[in-house]
Amino acid sequence: GVFSATNSVTWNTLPQDCNTMAIANETQQIGFGNPCWVGQNISANAGDYIKVRIYYHNTGTSTANNTRLKIIESPNGNNSTSYTFSGQIISDAGTFYSTDPSAVNLTVPSGQTLDFIETRWFPNQTTTNPHISGTEILSSSGLDIGDITPSGLTQGTAMAIFHVSNTQTQNCAINSFTANPTSITVGQSSTL
C-alpha cells in the first residue's frame, strides 16, 4: 500500500515492512510472527486475550510531524459476533489508511463482550518496556507518538489489547421449593 501525501512522507512501502494491521490471539498463540505478525482473520473463545497491532515505518524523505496512530473498531460495541479493525496513521502530511489488508477480523461466540484492556506502544523496534497508555488509540484523535523521522530505526508498532468475556447466558427455573418450618406464625421467619 504505497501512500504519499506530500511525496515526501510515505508509510510502510519497503518490501520488508510489515502489514499495517495485524491481529493475534494471545491465548491460543495464533496470528503471531517475527518480526511481522500474520493474523488477518482469527477467532476467539470466551476468556481469550486478543491483540490488534498497527505498524508504522516512515519510508519517505521527510519527517512526519505530529504523528498519531488510530485503530478503528467496527462495530464499536459489544453486541456482535464479528469485529473488524482498520487503522490510520495521521500526521501533518496527511492520513494513511491501512491497506494490504485494509482491515483485520475477529470472530467471537455469541453472548460474549469484547472488553478493551490497554494500549502498548513499542517505538523504534523495541520489544521491552513498552509505553502503556489508555484508550487514545481507539479515540478520534489517536495515540500521539510525536514526530517520526524517515529512518529504519523509527519504525515501530502499537497494539490494543482486548479480552473476550466469559459471559454465560443461562435460563433457569424453579420447579419446586420447600419451606422450613412449613408453618409459621406472625413474627417468625421461614427459609426457602
Percent of residues in helices comes to under 10%
What gap, in angstroms, lies between the N and C termini? Answer: 67 Å
Instruction: Please state the structural category.
Output: mainly beta
Give the averaged pLDDT, no decimals: 86
Topology as a string of helices (H) and strands (E): EEEEEEEEEEE
Report a brief summary of the structure:
Helix content is 0%, strand content 38%.
What do you see in this structure?
With 192 residues, this protein is mainly β. It has no helices and eleven strands. The protein has strands at residues 21-25, 41-43, 49-56, 64-74, 82-91, 94-97, 103-107, 114-122, 131-133, 143-148, 156-164. Strands 2, 4, 5, 6, 7 and 10 form a six-stranded mixed β-sheet that branches. The protein is elongated. It starts with 20 loop residues before the first strand and ends in a 28-residue tail after the last strand. 31% of the residues are buried.
Keywords:
11 strands; mainly beta; six-stranded mixed sheet; five-stranded antiparallel sheet; elongated; single chain
Write the layout of secondary structure elements.
Blueprint: E1 21-25, E2 41-43, E3 49-56, E4 64-74, E5 82-91, E6 94-97, E7 103-107, E8 114-122, E9 131-133, E10 143-148, E11 156-164
Parallel strand pairs: 2-7
Antiparallel strand pairs: 1-3, 3-11, 4-5, 4-10, 5-6, 5-7, 8-9, 8-11
